[in-house]
Design a protein that fits this description.
By secondary structure, the protein is of the alpha/beta class. The protein has helices at about 5-10, 15-20, 35-45, 50-65, 105-110, 125-130, 150-160, 175-185, 210-225, 230, 250-260, 275-285, 335-345, and strands spanning about 135-140, 165-170, 190-195, 200, 205-210, 235-240, 265-270, 290-295, 305-310, 315. The chain folds into three domains: about 5-60, no CATH class; about 125-295, Rossmann fold; about 305-350, no CATH class.
Length: about 350
């Protein structure tokens, strides 16, 4: 088989088969794309072309021998049930206004802004999360603004005091830069470093901020035999915005980071919107040497308020009440209704207005 024929045959195969062929031949082959993987395999095949072609044909034969699942048959069509005759309502239901007076704009804005200084008292779930990190991994699933960062800071403070390295990951470089600035003020600039695709500062600091991809690559390199003292002393890995594990494109980065994380390090996963925290905690328990504890808290520390800002700059509460009504009809604020109608009159053709 000529080199050109071998290249064409490799190009016709799925990338999963190429990775199987590269096992034991190429280090860190899982980091290469298909085109790059084919180039490296071709160079490697020159050392033992006969053995390489034999392994390739064996893998192709195994793949072709796999049984093809039979096509699923469409379910038989069900006979439609006769529907009851449609009765037209005698009148269109009208939303009745609440007898309670609508809140004023000043009352709606009351309490917004920076609160006065007061002694901070951690919530019970925060203390529980920090305590559980001594003996297990922890998944924290709480609403935005509830205090996830406090758990991360206190856990990092304890690990640094024990001369352990702490790695804090985020999905975005911009968020990594923000956390670098925030943590530098808390721990001191000499205690915090940052590693991203285009920025490397104080890379030997005890607390390192980086994107999740950077940590995954460090773990890849360690798996290939490259020694990194930061991983030898690693005591805590904080994965912020861990709901990205469900992302169809980037989720594999979070999965591999968790799988390759050193066993002596504790994992702390933080998220405000992860959909299945119980499943994530059970999965971590099944693949890690330590159990995983789930901390779940559903009450918002900072309640939400809904308002409407008209293009002309007019601001009004969206509902009659201060908060967002849940579990019962939320009547719109009269001023919000008026502004909605005004916006329709200004933007929609007359035939489409309600």
């Amino acid at each position: 088989m000529t080199t050109e024929e071998l290249e064409q045959l490799l190009a016709q195969q799925p990338i999963a088969l190429l990775h199987r062929l590269a096992r034991g031949r190429i280090q860190r082959h899982f980091r290469a794309g298909k085109r790059r993987l084919i180039e490296v395999l071709l160079r490697h095949s020159a050392e033992n072309r006969a053995g390489f072609e034999s392994d390739l044909m064996t893998l192709i034969g195994e793949q072709q021998a796999r049984p093809v699942p039979p096509p699923q048959q469409a379910p038989a069509a069900r006979k439609p049930k006769p529907s009851a005759p449609h009765r037209r309502p005698a009148h269109k239901p009208v939303e009745q206004d609440s007898h309670e007076p609508a809140i004023t704009l000043s009352s709606w804005l009351e309490g917004l802004g920076v609160p006065p200084p007061q002694t901070f008292v951690p919530d019970a779930w925060q203390e529980d999360a920090i305590a559980k990190l001594r003996e297990s991994d922890v998944v924290v699933s709480v609403p935005t603004g509830s205090g996830k960062t406090y758990v991360a800071v206190e856990a990092a403070r304890r690990a640094i005091a024990e001369n352990r390295t702490v790695i804090y990951t985020s999905p975005l470089k911009a968020l990594s830069n923000t956390k670098y600035t925030e943590f530098s003020k808390i721990f001191g600039p000499d205690q915090v470093g940052i590693l991203t695709g285009d920025r490397r500062d104080n890379g030997q600091a005890p607390l390192l901020i980086m994107t999740t991809e950077i940590l995954r690559n460090l773990l890849y390199d360690a798996g290939g035999g490259e020694i990194d003292v930061r991983l030898d002393t690693l005591g805590l890995v904080i994965l912020d915005e861990s709901q990205y594990i469900a992302d169809p494109e980037r989720g594999v980065v979070w999965e591999e980071t968790i799988i390759f994380c050193p066993s002596q390090a504790r994992l702390l996963l933080l998220s405000a919107s992860i959909g299945n925290p119980h499943d994530i905690a059970e999965w971590l328990t099944s693949i890690r040497p330590t159990p995983c504890h789930l901390i779940r808290h559903s009450t918002r520390t900072v309640p939400l308020r809904a308002g409407y800002l008209h293009p002309n700059g007019k601001l009004t509460p969206l509902f009659r009440t201060v908060g967002i009504p849940h579990g019962h009809p939320g009547h719109l604020h009269p001023e919000a209704k008026r502004l909605f109608l005004q916006y329709e009159d200004e933007t929609l053709p007359s035939g489409r207005r309600r």
